[in-house]
Amino acid sequence: MNGEDITAVDVVVVGVGTMGSMALWQLSQVPGLRVLGIEQFGPAHTYGSFSGESRLYRAAAKEGRIYIPALLESRRLWQELEAESGRRLLLPVGALSIGPEGHEDLASTLAAIREYDLPHRVLDAAELAATYPQFAVRPGDIGILDELGGGLRPELAVMSATERAVARGAEVRYHTEVLGLAEDGDGVTVSTSTGTIRARRVVVTAGSWTTRVLPELRSLIHVEAYALTWFMPRHLELFTPERFPVFMRDLDGVHAFGAPSLDGYSIKMCPHLMWPPLDHPSQVPATISPEQLAWAGEWAQRMIPDLVPDPVRWSVHHDSVSPDHVPVIDRVGAGHIVVATGMSGNGFKFAPVYGRVVAELATQGASALQHPMFTLAGHLDRAGVAA
Ligand SMILES: Cc1cc2nc3c(=O)[nH]c(=O)nc-3n(C[C@H](O)[C@H](O)[C@H](O)COP(=O)(O)OP(=O)(O)OC[C@H]3O[C@@H](n4cnc5c(N)ncnc54)[C@H](O)[C@@H]3O)c2cc1C
C-alpha cells in the first residue's frame, strides 16, 4: 500500500496491546464486520503495559465493589479465550492478600467478598504461618485467599486474542503508527505511517500513548512507571504454582505483590518502587538504581525470608493513569471514536471485559458493562471540570 491508497473498513482499532487485542477478539465475533487493528510495534512486543511474564487476577477487588460484576464476567471471558486458543492463560493458583487485620485494603477486599459471596478463606496469623510458611507472618496479620484469583500470562493472552480475531477474519497491520484521527459526519479518517484508512468507527486502545492520538485527554491521562523485580528463593520447591499463590503483602507501610515461579528459578516479588508522573512512555527510566534495587531486595527478604535479596531480573514498564485510577472508557468527539485508557496499573485482569465494552460502544453505541464512573462526563465531574 502507498500513501495514495485509502482502505475502507468498519472499525479500526488503534493499538493492538492489552485492550486492543481483546477489542479485536470481541469485534471479530460480530458477523460481517470488517475490522482492522493497527499496531506501531510487532505482535506481543516488549514495549507495552502488558509485558513482564505475569499479571494478578483478583475477583475480590480491593478497589471497590463496582468492579466485581466486570471481574466475574472477565473471568468467564478469560476461560472462553483459553478454550478457544487451547492455551492456559489464567493459572488457578488463588490470590492471597496479607496485612495487619483492619488494613484498609483487606477491609475492602472482605467487604467485596461478603457482598458478592465470593469463595474465599480468611486465615489468622497462626493459620497463615502454617499454610503459607513462605511468608514472614507477624502477630495480628491476617490472610485473605481469593479462591477465584490467579495469575494471568499477559504476552500469551495478547497473542491468543489477536490470533483468534485474525482467525475470524480481522486484519492486523504491525509496524504501522497511527499519526492522527480526523472525525467528520460519517466516520473517521485515520492517517498512519503507511497510508490512510477510512473507518466508520475507531477504537483507541493506545495505552500510555493515548494522548498523542487524542490530545484532548491530556488533562485526564498521565503516564506512570512501574518496576518488576524477580528474586531467587533458596527452596524453589516452595514457590511453584502448585504451592504458591499470586499475592499482595502490606508490611509497615510498604506494599508488594508477586507471583509463583514461572521461569523455574525465581519468583516475581515487587516491593512498590515509585517515580514521578510522566507525560510519555519514552520518559520511562531505563534503569533501576542500585539503591532502589537494594531497598526492594531488603523488603522482599523481610516479607519472604527464603529469598536471596539480590534480584536476578528486573524491568521497568509503564501504564496510562487517570486522576482517581478509574479507567476512561467512553465515546469521544462526535461519537465515532471510542477510547479505553487510564488503566492505572490495574487493567489487565479486566482486559477481555473492557474489550467487550469498547466493541459494544463502537457497534451499538452503548454497553451495559460501561460503569457511569468510566465516562468522560463522570471523570470531568469528579475532577470538578465542566463537561
Ligand atoms: C509492571 C506492571 C504490572 C502490572 N500488574 C498488573 C496486575 O498484576 N494485574 C492487573 O490487572 N493489571 C496490572 N497492570 C496493569 C495492566 O497491565 C495495564 O493496565 C494494561 O496492560 C494496559 O493495557 P493498554 O491496552 O491500555 O496498554 P498496552 O497494553 O500498552 O497497549 C497499547 C498498545 O497501543 C499501541 N499504540 C500506541 N499508540 C499507537 C499508535 N499511535 N499507533 C499504533 N499503535 C499504537 C502500543 O504499541 C501498545 O501495543 C500492571 C501494569 C504494569 C506496567
TrEMBL record:
The keyword Oxidoreductase applies. Residues 10-361 form the FAD dependent oxidoreductase domain. Its EC number is 1.5.3.2. GO terms for molecular function: flavin adenine dinucleotide binding; N-methyl-L-amino-acid oxidase activity; sarcosine oxidase activity. It is an enzyme of class 1 (oxidoreductase). Its cofactor is FAD. It comes from the Bacteria. Keywords: FAD, Flavoprotein, Oxidoreductase. It holds the Pfam family DAO. This is N-methyl-L-tryptophan oxidase. It comes from Raineyella fluvialis.
